[in-house]
Each structure stands twice: as structure tokens, then as C-alpha cells.
């Protein structure tokens, strides 16, 4: 398969997200850490538990933006993000719930013999972990579809934080 610049960039973003996740997860749960086995198309990454069990976990990775325009600004690195207002977070929450629904719909197409988790990386520069924590109850989470749903976002200090939603 020939990788286009767009697919290469997508793979790089997924690699960054999974490495952030592994670093944060292993720091928070040092006895039950993961290591990256490989990246693929579906699910995006396959991890292996550290230690004796060596169980696999598939991780589907998605990036959250408030709009296609914001995604293009961030991915093209050229234009600074537009100023955001409090109402814009409503848009981001709608996008988050839509993203989760899309991933739920794709989950059945994975025929893996190991559990599949979902990692959502907040890539919207205008909002951080504190914004999500304040309105976490508005996120619509599916039951029994993914083994875990994790949310990865920067906090107000610019540090990456990991939140387990399911």
C-alpha cells in the first residue's frame, strides 16, 4: 500500500497519541503497563500488556476538533487558531458525541480476538481537560462496545492528562 502525505500524517498523529497514552497510562498504573506492538489500519494500534500475561489490546484512535476548518488550521500548522468563546464548547461536545457514535458504528467491522479500546485525543487548541471535566456528564458513552474509552487532553498548564471514561 502506497502511503500518501495525508495518510502518513494521520499515522504520525496516531503514533503521537498512542505514545502519549502509553506514557501516561504506564506512569499512572506502573504494574499494569502497555507497550506498542504495531500500528495498522483497524484498529489503529495493537498494544501488549507488560508482565507475565502479555495480553493484547487493540486501540482505535481518533482526534477531536470542533470543525473541519479547525482541523485544517491545526494540521496545516500555518494559521493560528481562531479565538473561542464559551458557546464553542457546545459545538465541541456535539462533535465528540458524533465521533463516538461513528466509532461505535465501525466497531463491528473489527474481527479481532482481543478487546478493542477507544482513545480520543482532544486536538482542539481552544479547550482543555478542565473544560471536559466540567461537562463530562454530557458525553454520551456506549456500553459494552469498547473495553475502555480514554480521553487524552492538555490541561490549563499545557500538560497532557488521561481520563478513563469507560
Please give a structural write-up:
The chain is of the alpha/beta class and 166 residues long. It has one domain. 36% of the residues lie in helices and 23% in strands. The chain has four helices and six strands. A six-stranded mixed β-sheet has the order 1-2-3-4-5-6. The mean pLDDT is 89.
Fold topology:
Layout: H1 5-28, E1 34-39, E2 45-49, E3 56-64, H2 68-76, H3 88-107, E4 116-122, H4 129-134, E5 149-154, E6 160-164
Parallel strand pairs: 3-4, 4-5
Antiparallel strand pairs: 1-2, 2-3, 5-6
The helix-strand sequence is HEEEHHEHEE
Poorly predicted parts: none
Q: Helix coverage percent of residues?
A: 25-40%
Q: Structural class from helices and strands?
A: alpha/beta
Counting DSSP E segments of at least 2 residues, the number of strands comes to: 6
Strand content: 15-25%
Estimate the mean pLDDT confidence: 89
Any key phrases for this structure?
4 helices, 6 strands, 36% helix
Summarize the structure.
With 166 residues, this protein is α/β, with parallel strands linked by helices. It is built from four helices and six strands; from the N terminus they run H-E-E-E-H-H-E-H-E-E. It has a six-stranded mixed beta sheet.
